[in-house]
Please model this.
Amino acid sequence: MNDEENTRPGQLPIAVRWDSARTERLLGRVHARIDRARRVRRGLLASLPVVALVLLAAFGFHRWSRHDIAATPLPAGGHVAARIVLLGDGSRVELRDAETELRVRSDAPSLFRVELASGAGRFHVTHAAGRTFEVIAGPVTVAVVGTDFTVELLEERVRVQVHEGTVRVSWPEDSRTLSLGESGLFPPAAAEPAASSPGAGVTPAVQAYRSSVSRHDYAEAYGVLSRHPGVVGDSVDDLLTAADVARLSGHAAQAVPYLERIATGHPSDGRAPLAQFTLGRTLLGLGRAVEAEQAFAQVRRRWPNSPLAEDALVRQIEAAARAGDLKAAQKLAEEYDQAYPQGRRRSEARRHAGIE
Amino acid sequence: MQTWLGLAPVGRRVQDSAVADRASEDTVDFDAVFRRYAPYVGAIVARLVGRADDVDDIVQDVFFQAHRGLHTLRDPEAVRPWLTRIAVRRSRRWLRRHWHVRFFASDTADDFDNLADPSASPEQRAEISRIYRELRKMPADQRVVWVLRTVEGETLESIATLVGCSLSTVQRRLRAAQAMMERLR
Model:
């Protein structure tokens, strides 16, 4: 390991001062931690039969005493990452995954308020006269009386979908009421309707497709897509989503035409290089190396200043080699050396070309 | 058993589970891997979290996690990228959990002085301080992508692999981070 690797990058001379004494000191600490973990693991293994018995008894008691509830209770001020949680007011929340984080912010007689700190959750709210139920997600507040809805915290906005009843969604500038079957992204982008209504010129197939996509149920979405190809519009968003639906449901070959449509129909869109690059990766994954090489070559030719250009060149080398054209791969590897003399993927490029 | 850096061929079956557990870990010369890669992991962690004082704790976390999976690696060349991936994810977790640092830490240049290479000029030290002071205001996910791209010089595809997200997410986070850095200038 030489110093160059530790002091890496070009512009900023950043490096931690490291010597062998520090290495040995840290190694000792890591070993101590590993030994502690081993002791704990052995202790756990030894006590496993007892723990299993206790858990079995606790489970039996739980089933006997609360057989109608299969959820983890969430106390006020607490937070959990369990799959299903039971709130203090009797409402239930289905958390999407382990990354989802929910906290109870208020458990007052007139207001029950939870905060969705990350991820997404479907809320089954129990009606209580005179008590409002609120979900805070980023800048958005969703207020309800008694209903069933999903809140998903995205990177910049919050998706709300109503499965039953009515909710009021508020954000710093405005608010909006959503009813059964409606969904929306909040706060809405400028010049964009805040919510889509299933009745506003949208066919049931489109509605089913969008619903499956919003639930990340790509297998179901692909089922709708294959029966009703017309559900896909011609915008870049629509085409990228359709390509994702096809790829993530295990039908990579069906993603190809959608990705091609972006490159040909929307070449000036900022996402076109990404679509073309994804096309190359998809073709490579399908074993269509010659077409993949052309796709990567197009990324570099049409969008030479794209931040994906370096990746595209490495992938083009890989595709050329896989297509059996080692000579072209080696020529491209030389091109990489010239274009990116400090490139992080240099050894990978050379390995693909059979130089290393 | 011949090893590369102590990396034994995998696939050996041991009947007794307790023995197997210990044996599978010990067929790998973990110490050799640690000695070779700890400085590299420490350097990456320092650049990501921007606090030299916390590097040791995160490096320990990285290798503690690595210890459990190291014996499963078949390709010696995979060790470094694998450790890099763990280091990136551990650093991101640290940044998320220690969000309060950006509010309560002082803003003196001394905080970042021990990040700079001894050969760095006063101007370069000032630049490092300025950048890391601004990075404190950035969400962890955007910050990690920005540092990997701008400081580490990683490509977008590599960043997606290191962070464990899609290329489009990397692009979106990078754009947001760049816009924020521009605004903060």
In short: Residues 1-24 of chain B have pLDDT under 50 and may be disordered.
